[in-house]
Design brief:
By secondary structure, the protein is of the alpha/beta class. The protein is built from ten helices and eleven strands. The chain has a single domain, classed as BirA Bifunctional Protein, domain 2 (2-Layer Sandwich), CATH 3.30.930. The chain is 34% helix and 23% strand. Strand 3, helix 2 and strand 4 form a beta-alpha-beta unit.
Length: 279
């Protein structure tokens, strides 16, 4: 499958706090809806951040531990459990595209938008693919310890190495995901309230790029960005590389941070169960 034939812009890895990263995803979706221009970007969490799934119970979070460790906490638009995004060990990406440019069936849209992610692993010399069959969950509140699903969980060496999720507005689809570069199991577990899993057991479920390839983080990011650009160029749409956010987008994102992604009413209040794609 080739990339959707729309106009694209590519944003290289940018370091920002988690609430702003989630707000920028939403701003990119608004741009896709209003102008038809799709956005693909790599980004970095700074500082480390726990993102709660849309419907996750806030009581599953160890808020004091997050405060002590300086870990940001926000809530995603996508479903699933909480994900600890390490400032060093997590490589994130997102794709925001007009709804009518991607398949309507969730699984087909996943497979289309995950193509460059799988290609990046191939370029790194890592044999990664969707998990062949479901794997039972270990701890429901933690996304990386939930049941592994063939639709969207990517594994290498028998362990999860990437997760992806989608949400849709009327006119836009946003897919975002995490590639694990390096695993910090204690830090990941510490953000949850009383997880019944040891660090050793966590590492049996999750693997990092640095364990499977002789590459530093910067090179891994460049590889992902190159795979994303080449995927876009497989289609016929125009492409703007090294793009920047417009002023109206950054203004919208700042408003979303203040009114939503850092607001306790969004982050700490229980929400209804999500029907969106899970990470």
């Amino acid at each position: 499958m080739t990339a959707p034939d729309v106009d694209w812009r590519v944003m290289r890895e940018q370091r920002r706090p988690g609430p702003m990263q989630m707000a920028l995803d939403e701003a990119a979706a608004a741009t896709a809806s209003e102008t038809g221009t799709a956005t693909v970007r790599a980004y970095r969490w700074d500082p480390s951040c726990l993102t709660l799934g849309y419907g996750q119970d806030p009581d599953t979070v160890d808020w004091d531990a997050c405060d002590r460790a300086g870990v940001d906490v926000t809530r995603r638009q996508t479903g699933g459990g909480g994900i600890y995004h390490d400032a060093y060990g997590d490589i994130a990406y997102s794709i925001a595209v007009p709804t009518d440019a991607v398949p309507g069936r969730l699984l087909d849209a996943y497979h289309l938008l995950c193509e460059p992610v799988l290609d990046a692993f191939t370029r790194l010399g890592i044999d990664a693919d969707y998990v062949d069959e479901s794997v039972p969950e270990l701890h429901h509140p933690a996304c990386y310890l939930r049941e592994l699903h063939p639709a969207h969980d990517v594994v290498a060496d028998g362990r999860k190495i990437a997760g992806n999720a989608q949400y849709r507005t009327r006119d836009a689809v946003v897919q975002h995901g995490s590639l694990t570069f390096s695993v910090d199991a204690p830090a990941h577990l510490d953000v949850f309230a009383d997880p019944p899993v040891t660090a050793e057991r966590f590492r049996e479920r999750v693997v990092g790029i640095d364990e499977l390839a002789d590459v530093d983080r910067a090179a891994a990011v460049r590889t992902l960005e190159s795979a994303l650009v080449d995927w876009i160029e497989s289609g016929t749409g125009s492409i703007e590389t090294d793009a920047a956010w417009r002023d109206d987008e950054t203004e919208l994102a700042r408003d979303l941070v203040a009114g939503k992604y850092r607001d306790d009413g969004w982050v700490r209040s229980p929400r209804g169960k999500s029907e969106r794609g899970h990470e």
